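Appendix B. Raw example, untouched.
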Amino acid sequence: MAGGTTAQRGTPFSDRSGPSARKGGGAPKPPKPPKRPRAPKGPEGAKSARRPGAGGPGARLRRGPVLASLAAAVLLVAGGTWVLYGSSWLRVEKVSAAGMDVLTSEQVLGAAAVPVGAPLVSVDTDEIEARVRGRLPRIDSVDVVRAWPHGIGLKVTERKPVLLIKKDSNFVEVDASGVRFDTVAKAPAGVPVLELNADRSPSARRFDEERLLHEAVLVAGALPEPIAKQTVQVKVGSYDSVVLELTGGRSVTWGSGEQSDAKGRALNALLKAAPKAGHFDVSVPTAPAVSGS
C-alpha cells in the first residue's frame, strides 16, 4: 500500500493538456489574416465586383453618346419612311410607254392602270407587267421601271406575225412561237397566209392540224426577211410536203420543217444566183435545184 502511495506522488509525468498548460506553455499561435469585405449580393453587386467603378458617373457619360446615336438612327429611319410613303415628294405623276408598232400608247397605259398619285416606292412593277400582258396578247414582253422622282416607264415588245390563218373574212396572226395573238380584218403586208390541206394528207392520223400548223410556223419563222416579204402563201399538204408561193408566180418545194434554217440560206442563195427561175427545190438543202429559168 505504502509503495503504491509513493509511486503516485513521485510520478515524473504531468498532464499538460489542461487549461493551465495551454495558457502558460508552447509557442504563440500566428494572428489570423483580416477577412476581405464581401461584395453585396445581386446583379449590381456582381457587376461592381467585376468592374470597379461600373454604374458611376463615368459609365453614365459613356452611355450618353450611344443613346444619342440610337435616337438619331431612329429619327433617320422614321424620316426616310415618311419621305418615301407619306410625303408628296416621291409620288407617281407621269406614266409613259414606248416600243409599240401596232398598239397605241393609250392602249398600253390603259391596260397598265398605274395608280397615279401613289407613292412611287409602293408601285408593284411585276403586277403591272402581268396586267399589261394579260390584257394585251399582242405584247410579248414589257419592262416596267421607276423613273425617280415622279415617273413610271413601260418598255414594250410586241409579237411579230410570221403567218396568217384565214378565218372567215379576217386573219389570225401567229408568231414564231406558234402563239395566235390577234385577229385583224386586213392582212399585214409581207406576212404569208397559211393554206392547210390536212384532210388530204396520208399521214393525217399521225400529224393532225395542230402539228402541221407547227411545221408551217417553223418554216415561216426561218425565212430570211427578204424572202419572207416575197412569200405570199405557205401550203401544207402533209408533214413533209410544204410549198411556198412567192411573188411573180414562183414556187419553192420546201419539204418538211426540218433543217429550216439551212433551207432558208439555200433558197436565199438560189434567188440571187437564178433570179428569173420559176421553181426552186430546197427539200435537200445540201443539194438545192432550180427549174423554169
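End of appendix B.
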